[in-house]
Design a protein that fits this description.
The complex is a heterodimer of chains A (517) and B (490).
Chain A lengths: L7 H19 L8 H29 L3 E11 L2 E9 L1 H24 L6 H20 L3 H19 L6 H31 L5 H7 L5 H18 L7 H5 L5 H10 L4 H8 L1 H4 L3 H24 L3 H21 L3 H21 L3 H4 L9 H5 L1 H8 L4 H32 L11 H8 L14 H49 L1 H15 L1
Antiparallel strand pairs in A: 1-2
Helix pairs in contact in A: 1-2, 1-4, 2-3, 2-4, 3-4, 3-10, 3-15, 4-5, 5-6, 6-8, 8-11, 10-14, 10-15, 11-15, 13-14, 13-18, 14-15, 19-21
Chain B lengths: L2 H18 L5 H25 L8 E9 L4 E7 L3 H17 L8 H20 L3 H10 L1 H11 L4 H29 L7 H8 L4 H18 L8 H8 L2 H25 L1 H28 L3 H22 L2 H32 L15 H15 L5 H17 L4 H22 L15 H19 L2 H20 L4
Antiparallel strand pairs in B: 1-2
Helix pairs in contact in B: 1-2, 1-4, 2-3, 2-4, 3-4, 3-11, 3-14, 4-5, 4-6, 4-11, 5-7, 6-7, 7-9, 7-10, 9-11, 9-12, 10-13, 11-13, 11-14, 12-13, 12-17, 13-14, 13-16, 13-17, 14-15, 14-16, 14-18, 14-19, 15-17, 15-18, 16-18
Classes of the chains: A mainly alpha (517), B mainly alpha (490).
Chain lengths: 517, 490
């Protein structure tokens, strides 16, 4: 079968995204009349990818999974080589089909939901980008390619949370979510670097094979970075708060990102690397602990939510926490099944959320009685366990004050030494502005003056040389030469005049005679 | 009569023709001068096709015995070192004559002197006999003195006298050294080849003394740091076309002579190599700093010439292939760049009547072509890659680095200083707030545009494709630098 066409599966949605973006710049995918074209393009590309993926899947069912497929080299430098490879095992193929179907459904839903929205092309471009990124995550055959998908998904998530970028809350939340995700990215990169250093390859099969070796510590170290990435992406405690802020985007995007697909990317990663971590008890305990905490956090916070999307979100968090718990207990297959069923169910719920008010026949249930009886717990749930505030206090404020200090240092010390223009260069009064209007005011400094340490040195040195030039070379040399010649000329003229007087002439003649005689 | 003699006589013939014309017919005189300069240019550039660049020796050689008892001869010839200078001289002479349209008093005398000056300059680069060389060397002074003295600015008399005195003072030492050399040849001769063979057997002390005399003579012209006093005055006071010739070619005569003499007295140069490089670096930084300090645009260019000729001397002082090639290329580069600078600033001065940079502002709005050409010229002066200045500075830097190691860093310092004043000047001239009275300046017109385009094209073409001019020089320079590999510098 056409295994080598597998690269087309994630590329088609990415191409669609690129086409929309290009069209927006060039002008052919703007306005309402372009909506049909955009919708068809995005859905068509996803359908084509799905077709290819189904063919591969059917092939795998009939003749067994092809495993690692290498399509070429992405880049290489020295003995460092990153191939374009795909891991087509049952997990990857199954997840791929699931992700693609859910994305396709969301795209179909959005065609009507986003109709006549101002950011229609942007939304579909990002959705397509996200589809491509997710497919890369689940199908990629090496950690670097997975990371590319990981980042594409993170980026489109950031841009969709900030979809209505004219609202402050949306942009602040988008930044917050993105920055939190960078923690996970750091873990991912850390593991890639370790894998390359210790294993010499970043292909998933070689990394997983490595776990069978006796050096459990190194395997665990490689694993811990991936686990961190998974924890952040799936919004586990203590990284949970970002997902609560992520609901600013349009509903279909929330559905596909945080309800169904992206939030499960962490669980997928854990299942993918399970041989690497299952031998390290510490990581497993950690997963059990954090999974349980997250499940509790999601459950308790979900109980007190009053809007549809938030309660859905916390219940999702709780479920994903349970999946982490299952992984921690070593039940990876159960986690995979849990993931699939939960994703489908949650997509359905999220896509329903906007219409729920019309469908609802009875008011929302009040907060459970037992919770109201424990005020501390109630308050904590209302405040989402203060996770945001703790992060702010621990990380944000020290960073901000450090940056402030550095800024002060830069302005007061470095800028002065370098001589960057300071605020005095701006116009400070109306009269100056008027003078400038009439073309009389000079804003720049004089010729021969400079700012900063080096500039001052230059100025001082140039002034010194200028003095030398003025006094010695020009006055002393050139003009001095001239005046010396004039002086000599005057003396000679005097001698000449004296000689022309008769008495000195006679004297001269007499002297000559005396000498001769 | 050989082709070089014909080339030499052509401008003189033009000058004689102008002398015969009635003094009222300004237009006709200008046409004759332009025609003569163009013919000379075509003839000189035609030599390139005949010139065999693979051969290091003299070509088109003609020798006529002149005064057998003194051992002088009228001998002309060119090699890869003098041909680029010859081409530059004819090009800049034509450009200078084209830029002379604003000269409207005593037109006849002006163009006559310009053509005589062109002939004398070509003679310096073609002469193969030291007596003839000295003759042409002195001959350049006479037209220049009158050109500055009669058509110059406010303080022209002082400047002309100063220029004359300085150069004559240097020439005295030049003459003494020449006579000592003459004496060393058995039977006595001024022929360059005869002197070159005889001088090699002189003891090192004598060579050093003789070379010092030459250094004084040529150093005034180049100019080298403490004896450059004539230059700022003369450049500022001279009419702009004469400034083009002064800094474009007259300064090159000094460095050209120095290179020739270095070949004659290899041991003497080798002993003085350290002093030469010290003078070069001091000139480089000194000229740059003073240029930075000037608010008079012409004075600024004049001091920048001191700085750029420091690069030439630096290349010569390296006494190796790369350094000498860099020096020659920098001579070409500075000829083009300084020529273009004086041309553009001169034209600007004609329009506004001021040379003070503080009086200019935001010219780019009214004169975009001026802005384009001036900016190009100034960045070429800094040695921006893609312009001829870069290739030249790079060669000099490589040559200097091979010989002197990290001392070459000072060269980079000089380049940085030149960047400071060049960018400052461009910013002051063309950007900034709109200023009253500046918005009536006319942009470049037909033939001014043509002259500027020719120079700019030279700057860029030689910057992008330096190979032709390097090929032209390399055979001669390679043979020339062989002299030093065995001897002086060790």
């Amino acid at each position: 079968m056409a295994d080598y066409l597998v690269w087309l599966i994630p590329t088609l949605p990415l191409l669609a995204a690129a086409w929309i973006g290009l069209g927006f710049v060039a002008g052919w995918s703007r306005g309402e009349q372009a909506e049909t074209m955009i919708g068809r393009l995005v859905i068509g590309s996803s359908l084509l990818s799905l077709l290819l993926l189904s063919l591969l899947g059917a092939d795998a069912v009939l003749y067994g999974t092809p495993g690692q497929v290498v399509c070429g080299t992405w880049f290489s430098s020295g003995d460092y080589r990153i191939p374009i490879s795909f891991l087509l095992d049952s997990l990857g193929l199954g997840m791929g089909v699931l992700v693609l179907i859910l994305c396709l459904l969301t795209q179909l839903f959005s065609v009507n939901y986003m109709h006549r929205e101002r950011g229609y092309p942007r939304f579909f471009m990002l959705l397509s980008l996200f589809t491509g990124g997710m497919l890369l995550i689940v199908l990629a055959g090496n950690a670097v390619l997975t990371f590319v998908g990981w980042e594409l998904a993170g980026l489109s998530s950031y841009l969709l949370i900030g979809y209505s970028y004219d609202r402050t809350v949306a942009t602040v939340n988008a930044t917050r979510a993105f920055v939190t995700n960078r923690v996970g990215d750091a873990g991912f990169l850390f593991s890639i670097a370790l894998a390359y250093a210790w294993i010499g390859s970043v292909e998933w099969p070689s990394i997983l094979e490595y776990s069978s070796r006796p050096e459990a510590l190194t395997a665990g170290l490689i694993g811990i970075g991936f686990v961190t990435a998974a924890l952040v992406k799936s919004a586990q405690v203590p990284f949970s708060p970002w997902i609560g802020r992520a609901l600013e985007g349009p509903t279909p995007s929330s559905a596909v990102f945080y309800g169904a697909v992206m939030v499960h990317a962490g669980v997928y990663l854990l299942i993918r690397i399970h041989p690497l971590i299952s031998e390290t008890p510490l990581i497993m305990y950690l997963l059990v602990l954090l999974g349980t905490l997250t499940a509790l956090y999601g459950w308790l916070s979900g109980l007190v939510q009053t809007d549809v999307k938030s309660s859905l979100m916390f219940s999702t968090t709780a479920q994903v926490g349970l999946m982490f718990l299952e992984c921690g207990l070593g039940w990876f297959e159960l986690a995979a099944w849990h993931l699939a069923t939960h994703a489908i169910w949650r997509t359905y719920q999220f896509l329903h959320a906007p219409a729920l008010m019309h469908l609802a026949t009875r008011p929302a249930r009040p907060v459970a009685k037992w919770l109201r009886r424990i005020p501390a717990l109630h308050a904590a749930a209302m405040q989402r366990f203060w996770l945001d505030a703790i992060t702010d206090w621990l990380l944000l404020r020290p960073t901000r004050s450090l940056a402030q200090d550095l800024q002060d240092f830069d302005q007061r010390v470095i800028n002065r030494i370098i001589g960057l223009p300071d605020r005095t260069a701006t116009l400070s009064s109306l009269s100056q502005w008027e003078a400038r209007k009439q073309g009389q005011f000079r804003q720049e400094g004089e010729i021969g003056s400079a700012r900063g340490l080096v500039g001052r040195l230059l100025q001082w040195f140039a002034t010194l040389l200028y003095w030398f030039e003025e006094h010695l070379v020009l006055k002393g040399g050139s003009e001095g030469l001239e005046s010396a010649i004039k002086l000599i000329g005057r003396y000679l003229q005097q001698v000449e005049q004296l000689l022309s007087q008769p008495r000195y002439l006679l004297l001269m003649i007499m002297v000559t005679f005396v000498v001769i005689l | 009569m050989g082709i070089l003699t014909f080339l030499l006589i052509l401008p003189l013939f033009g000058a004689a023709l102008i002398a015969a014309l009635p003094s009222g017919s300004d237009r006709l005189i200008r046409v004759v001068a332009l025609g003569t300069a163009t013919l000379t240019l075509l003839l000189a550039w035609g030599l390139v096709f005949e010139f065999d660049s693979t051969q290091p020796g003299l070509q088109f050689l003609e020798i006529h015995r002149w005064n057998p008892r003194l051992g002088t001869s009228f001998s002309l010839g060119i090699d890869g070192i003098s041909l680029p200078m010859l081409l530059l001289a004819t090009l800049l002479s034509l450009i200078a004559i084209m830029a002379s349209s604003s000269i409207n008093r005593e037109v006849k005398g002006y163009y006559l002197l310009m053509l005589v000056l062109e002939a004398a300059m070509m003679g310096v680069f073609m002469a193969q006999d030291w007596a003839l060389f000295y003759l042409f060397w002195e001959l350049t002074l006479i037209p220049l003195f009158f050109l500055i003295d009669r058509w110059g600015g406010q303080h022209r008399h002082g400047a002309a006298l100063n220029f004359f005195l300085y150069t004559m003072g240097g020439s005295v030492f030049l003459l003494i050294s020449l006579l000592v050399l003459f004496d060393s040849v058995p039977g006595g001769s001024f022929g360059m080849t005869a002197i070159a063979t005889a001088a090699k057997s002189l003891p090192e002390d004598t060579q050093v003394l003789i070379f010092l005399g030459f250094l004084l003579g040529f150093g005034v012209k180049m100019p080298i740091f403490p004896i450059h006093g004539w230059l700022p005055l003369a450049h500022v006071e001279a009419p702009s076309p004469v400034s083009i010739l002064l800094s474009g070619i007259l300064l090159k005569m000094g460095s050209y002579g120095l290179i020739r003499v270095a070949g004659v007295l290899p041991q003497g140069v080798g002993a003085l190599q350290g002093i030469l490089v010290a003078f070069a670096l001091v000139s480089l930084v000194y000229g740059g700093l003073l240029a930075w300090r000037q608010s008079d645009l012409k004075a600024m260019i004049a001091y920048s010439s001191v700085s750029h000729m420091g690069v030439v001397l630096f290349g010569i002082a390296a006494l190796n292939f790369a350094g000498l090639e860099g020096a020659l290329l920098q001579m070409v580069a500075h000829g083009l760049v300084a020529g273009a600078m004086f041309l553009l600033i001169g034209l600007l001065y004609e329009r506004t009547g001021t040379r003070d940079i503080n009086h200019y502002s935001s010219l780019v709005r009214v004169t975009p072509r001026f802005a384009f050409f001036t900016t190009l010229t100034f960045v070429a002066a800094v040695g921006l890659p893609g312009t001829v200045g870069f290739v030249a500075e790079l060669h000099a830097l490589i040559g200097g680095f091979q010989r002197w190691g990290w001392l070459a860093v000072v060269l980079s310092l000089g380049v940085m200083i030149s960047a400071a004043y060049a960018i400052r000047t461009v910013a002051r001239l063309f950007t900034g707030p709109v200023r009253a009275g500046i918005h009536k300046v006319a942009d470049l017109k037909g033939n001014e545009m043509f002259a500027a385009t020719v120079l700019a094209a030279g700057i860029i073409l030689l910057g992008l494709f330096p190979a032709p001019v390097l090929d032209l020089m390399s055979a001669s320079v390679a043979q020339f630098s062989l002299v030093f590999d065995g001897g002086g510098n060790g």
